[in-house]
What we know:
Organism: Gasterosteus aculeatus aculeatus (three-spined stickleback)
Number of strands: 2
Distance between the termini: 34 Å
GO molecular function: oxidoreductase activity
Strand order of the largest sheet: 1-2
Protein name: Chromosome 19 open reading frame 12
Radius of gyration: 20 Å
Family: Belongs to the C19orf12 family.
InterPro entries: C19orf12 (IPR033369), Glu_synth_asu_C_sf (IPR036485)
Order of helices and strands: HEHEHHHHH
Number of domains: 2
Shape: elongated
Amino acid sequence: MCHRVNDVMRLCCELSANQQVQTTVRGSGKGAAAAGGLAFAGGLIGGPLGIAVGGAVGGLLGCWMTSGQFKPLPQIIMELSPQQQQKLYDDLLAVMGDIQWTDLVQLTALVMGNATLKQQLTATLLGYISKELQAQESSSGSGLDFITQLQHNITSSWV
Length: 159
């Protein structure tokens, strides 16, 4: 059974890598605030040229402030605890139904060859990650509301 959980986790990595999903782990608002704030201050001081300079400097400052806070979703999936991976596996297995596979290659081929199943599994994956990260982040005082929007954007792009 353990190899089946590993197969599904690797499938999740493949699904998220195909969508090039990036998710933040902590406060992405800091970078946006720095960029916007310095663009505003630059505009007050230097007019239109000040907006450009302030935005550029603010963007660099925001990039520096958030450096290392963005992780690819496959990395997040592989860093889940065994209990979290089991819960995700159970959620995805409910969507997959009675699909049988012998190895990761066969599972990947079955899922990638079925657009509807691929979309349903990706939506389930993103929903789980969003819910799981929301729960972890709510205890530290920051939220990840943008993940819900990210999930909506990705599933809408398939329609």
